[in-house]
Amino acid sequence: MFEVQILIPTKSNEKVFFSAEHHAAFETFASNLFGGITRLPSAAAGAWVDGGKLYQDTTLVYVVAVPSITRGADVAALVEFVKAHYAQLAVYIRYLGLSEIL
Amino acid sequence: MPTHTTVSGHAIEFETPPPPVAALLARLGNMLADPAATEAQMLVLVYSPDNPIMDRSVMPGRGAVTPAVLADPVYQVMSDLLFRKRVVEHNVDLEALAAAHSLTVPEAAERLGINDSAVRKAIAARRLGTWLKDGRHYIDPRALASFHLQPRGPQPAEAHASTAPLEVRYGAEAGHTLKVKHPGELVGAQKRTGPDGVVYTGTVAPWKRVAVLTAKGGKGRMFVLEPADEECDVMIGELYVRGRFAIVEKINNAKAASEAWEAFEAG
Known about the structure:
Oligomer: heterodimer
Shape of chain B: globular
Distance between the termini of chain A: 21 Å
Order of helices and strands of chain A: EHEEEHEE
Largest interface: A-B, 42 and 54 residues
Radius of gyration of chain B: 20 Å
Strand content of chain A: 35-45%
Strand order of the largest sheet of chain B: 5-6-9-10-11
Number of helices of chain A: 2
Radius of gyration of chain A: 13 Å
């Protein structure tokens, strides 16, 4: 089992915050997929550049436990859900000491 | 029964919590009111394995939110308290956020290409968040983009129909009401007409998923049952559902229970 951290924005690109219920829908999806989800106490003010564009946001850090590397497709499904749910072009994840922008 | 109203206007009723949970709720409330306390500090408490409502088995060393925790109204209260702190810390424009929830249920259903009951089902299952305005659900259009991606990944093991019968006694009696949504016909049905209404007794089998709606004095609750190994019952007055099942979902708010009842499909 290994943990995957996924950074979630607190507001949209139009600077409108997402409601607690909007995040609850993400939690519902993730907990159904992986059995559970939790948050880390680091609402990180992060910034990164991708494709020449600067992304800067205040984010929430969620964590899921992935039972095996064979569940990699489910991590991809989670990322696709986050992109759609939060209208994001890129999603930042961390796992096993690595980072990826997907 | 305590009630908490969220920023988005939802009234959450919950059973009087045990002392450790009540103490944590009180502490979170105090931190919300304390300008020196931060959302991050409150979050540590909520998602800690020491939070009695969190699951400690999914992620060793961490408090995890499982589907069961999500269904717990106390977790919904804690989530709202965290969000309220974020509102304060980041000067969240609540008017703008409420205005962003612009779609009615029929409008959302039309955009999604599904019927209203499917939208209400998603709302009851917390797959679609809403903002309550004058008692009506309004949906943020941003939430629709991910709707058809649910569910994804490995599905839960196919629910096998249980042949162990549910014993039911439902109807209206002595100010109590109990309704059951079940597949098929009631087996061995007997009907008795009393001063308050009709009461039915019988058994339900086979079944995979059943909903029970109880009401007394205007207060309604809904339970979703699935087959399990343990004997269990749902009772109100002399009305009951008995058998081998687990309560997989419980809605204590009368309005939410009524909406979920309308959307429920037995199997």
